[in-house]
């Protein structure tokens, strides 16, 4: 075999290997590696072609022509295989990203009112049907509305009981004296409601909203909600109070929900009562929720104290009033059998989605 025949045989073998390898390549990256391996500066084909210079001068033209054909063939194969692979990749990507417009749509999750809102709305609806109008007041109150006007003077022990959050600053010039605080109950709305009516009768309002006290455990929260009612008119009696609350309990817990009143003390009512509702969980037999008594305390109530009527601009010799306050959390916990009050504020959807 002459040197040229030997060289041509090596070139032919290389061309065959290159053809096979190119046909088997599956990715753009694989092709690029092959290109470098064959045609790079130290590529197999490049080095083989360089040996052309070692052949005899008269053999070079024919050998050179062959070399050019092989090189052109490899370059063309690289190009063609590259196009095939890119076309296939594009098709696969289009297929993967295709949108099936016949699939049913996915709806965004739909919210609903918080259990505290549900219970508050229900209570407001009950009292609205009894003729009460919804009234509102500010959450940042002056001490006068929150305490003094409700017959709780500065040295009164109830001021301690309702340990308060005080706020920097002072009420506006047109407001009665005292520091600002986060209201500890919705009762200031009673005073505001009476003053707004300027002695007109009757006063029949319901106030719902947030109140704040320094408390934080499984059954108390530093912020909670009250629904408060006030009725002032000529001849309002304790019988009216009992009738309204009995009707409220029946509407909330069903026709068998009896109430009982226990004497109690609040500075702003006289006489005052704590009101229990017949335990709907055990039908009065005694259970964990009612601590075995068959009764559950749900609210505080009483006849409006004469000093409070005076603060609201009414003459206690002419009119009388009844008032009551319900804890919204308490009712929600009983209604939905929630044991820890903090669940109502944590915003955990696993909990809230149950309602
Ligand atoms: Zn019970």
Give me a quick take on this structure:
This protein is an alpha+beta fold. 42% of the residues lie in helices and 19% in strands.
Model description:
This protein has 355 residues and is α+β, with helices and mostly antiparallel strands. The protein folds into two domains: 3-97; 115-352, Bira Bifunctional Protein, Domain 2 (BirA Bifunctional Protein, domain 2). It has twelve helices and ten strands. The strands form two sheets. Strands 1-5-6-10-9-8-7 form a seven-stranded mixed beta sheet. A three-stranded antiparallel beta sheet has the order 2-4-3. Strand 7 (259-266) and strand 8 form a beta hairpin. 30% of the residues are buried. Zinc ion (ZN) binds at residues 279, 281-282, 286-287, 289-290, 294.
**Percent in strands:** 15-25%
CATH class of the largest domain: Alpha Beta
- C-alpha Rg (nearest Å): 44 Å
Q: Could you tell me the number of beta strands?
A: 10
> Based on helices, strands and strand pairing, what is the structural class?
alpha+beta
CATH topology of the largest domain: BirA Bifunctional Protein, domain 2
């Amino acid at each position: 075999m002459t040197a040229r025949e030997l060289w041509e045989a090596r070139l032919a073998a290389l061309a065959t290997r290159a053809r096979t390898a190119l046909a088997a390549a599956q990715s753009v990256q694989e092709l690029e590696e092959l290109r470098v391996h064959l045609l790079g500066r130290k590529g197999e084909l490049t080095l083989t072609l360089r040996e052309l210079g070692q052949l005899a001068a008269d053999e070079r033209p024919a050998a050179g022509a062959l070399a050019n054909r092989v090189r052109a063939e490899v370059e063309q194969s690289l190009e063609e295989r590259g196009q095939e692979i890119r076309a296939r990749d594009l098709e696969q990507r289009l297929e993967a990203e295709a949108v099936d417009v016949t699939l049913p749509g996915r709806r965004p999750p739909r919210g609903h009112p918080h259990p505290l809102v549900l219970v508050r709305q229900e209570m407001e609806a009950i009292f609205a049907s009894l003729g009460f109008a919804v009234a509102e007041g500010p959450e940042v109150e002056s001490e006068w509305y929150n305490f003094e006007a409700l017959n709780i003077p500065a040295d009164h022990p109830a001021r301690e009981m309702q340990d308060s959050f005080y706020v920097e600053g002072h009420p506006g010039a047109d407001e009665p004296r005292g520091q600002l605080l986060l209201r500890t109950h919705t009762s200031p709305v009673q005073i505001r409601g009476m003053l707004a009516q300027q002695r007109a009768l009757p006063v029949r309002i319901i106030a719902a909203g947030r109140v704040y006290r320094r408390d934080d455990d499984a059954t108390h929260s530093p912020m909670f909600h009250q629904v408060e009612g006030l009725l002032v008119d000529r001849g309002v009696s304790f019988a009216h109070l009992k009738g309204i609350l009995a009707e409220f309990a029946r509407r909330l817990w069903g026709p068998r929900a009896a109430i009982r009143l226990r004497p109690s003390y609040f500075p702003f009512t006289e006489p005052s009562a704590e009101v229990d509702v017949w335990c709907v969980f055990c039908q009065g037999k005694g259970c964990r929720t009612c601590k075995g008594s068959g009764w559950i305390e749900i609210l505080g109530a009483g006849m409006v104290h004469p000093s409070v009527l005076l603060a609201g601009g009414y003459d206690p010799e002419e009119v009388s009033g009844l008032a009551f306050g319900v804890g919204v959390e308490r009712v929600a916990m009983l209604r939905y059998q929630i044991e820890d009050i903090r669940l109502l504020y944590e915003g955990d959807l696993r909990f809230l989605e149950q309602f």
